[in-house]
Amino acid sequence: MPAASAGLLRFFEEESGGPKISPTAVVLFGILFIVASVALPLLF
Questions:
Q1: CA atoms of 35 and 43, how far apart (whole Å)
Q2: Which segments in the chain show pLDDT lower than 70?
């Protein structure tokens, strides 16, 4: 493994202090936001 990629791997392994959200929840919130953005102008 080249030395340049070792730092990149260490970067992704570090823990961040933010809230833990599963990738599935992120996708669902994104779809919900898109649906709401399209539906609200049609309803009002």
A1: 12
A2: 1-16
* Token pair listed for 4: 């340049």
What is the pTM assigned to this prediction? 0.56
- In the numeric block, the tokens 């260490």 are attached to 10
Q: How far apart are CA 21 and CA 28, in angstroms?
A: 11
Q: Where along the chain do its domains lie? A: 17-44
CA distance 15 to 33: 28
d(CA 18, CA 26): 14
